[in-house]
Amino acid sequence: MDQQATDLIVASQAALRQASALMVQYSFSIVGALLLLIVGWIAAMLLQRWSYEGLSRIRGFDETLARFFSGAVRYIVIILVLVMVLGQFGVQTASILAALGAAGLAVGLALQGTLQNIAAGIMLLVLRPFRVGEYIETSSVSGTVIEIGLFATELKTSEGLYRLAPNATLWNVPITNYSRFPSRRHELSVTVPRGDSTTDAQAMLMDVARAESRVLLDPAPTTFIDSVSNDSSTVKLRYWARSENWFATTRDMTKALKRAFDERDMKVSEQSSE
User: For 82-103, what is each residue's pLDDT tens digit?
Assistant: First the structure.
């Protein structure tokens, strides 16, 4: 009986010593983990702020991209800190990184379309084939750009409708930007019947161009004979106008040309050249 009591006391003392050792060991680990979390969180916030400010100082760098990359820096630092904290408690970090890689691959496969839009949005913001306020056209969408986001681009159509286009649909197709350059070319063609003077037609076309103040002098407007047939000849006027008032200029030029040639009984047709 006394021997059993003695063995119990010895076992209890050994258990207490082992528990004390574990408490001391893990208390240091817990304190170290807390300090690591605090320092890591502060470092993540500072790195996010510094990266955002640094990217914002780059001329022409989009603010959306600056926020995206600075946020990515923050989350990468936080993930690394969490892995280090788990390592403090003896967890195998290699297996954690492998699990994170597998999870990232699974999420990437599940969100393949979304990731394509993000990648396309980054490329659109970096290369800038169009900017806010410009009018663009693709094979499937056209309109004035309202906002360029990481996932989609907002546009306003010529009919005044709202249109949301996923960035992937704008990146892998040819884009026509009608507003990027300050001026655009336009052509007007006139059919001169056989027997009428093409020289007079050219002179009258130049008079119409000179009378319109919105027609640019550089490049200067030009006229030329485009084609000749047995019954008629086609004379063209080629001129340039500012992009912002190109549409109004072309409509007014067509009207002025029609008035000028009505009395000569000439057929007038119009052709645009972008």
Answer: 777 777 666 666 666 666 666 6
Cβ 235 vs Cβ 198: under 8 Å: yes
Joined together, the tokens standing for residue 52 give: 């955002």
pLDDT digits (tens, 9 = 90+) for 111-130: 555 778 888 888 888 888 99
263 and 193 together in one domain = yes
Helix and strand totals (H; E) in the chain:
7, 9
For residue 217, is it within any domain?
Answer: yes
152, 224: one domain: no
Q: CATH number of the domain at 147, please.
A: 2.30.30.60
Taking the C-alpha atoms of residue 115 and residue 106, their distance in angstroms, rounded to an integer, is 12
Among 136, 162, 177, the domain-final residue is: 177
The bridge status of strand 267-271 relative to strand 183-193 is: antiparallel
Assess contact for 51 and 112: CB atoms under 8 A.
Answer: no
Residue 122 included in any domain: no
Say if pTM beats, i.e. exceeds, 0.90. Answer: no
Contacts of 87 (CB under 8 A, 6+ apart): 93
CA-CA-CA-CA torsion sign (155, 157, 160, 161) = negative
Q: Length of the chain, please?
A: 274
Distance, CA of 181 to CA of 21 (rounded, Å): 75
Domain with 61 in it: 11-91
Beta strands 176-177 and 162-166, pairing class: unpaired
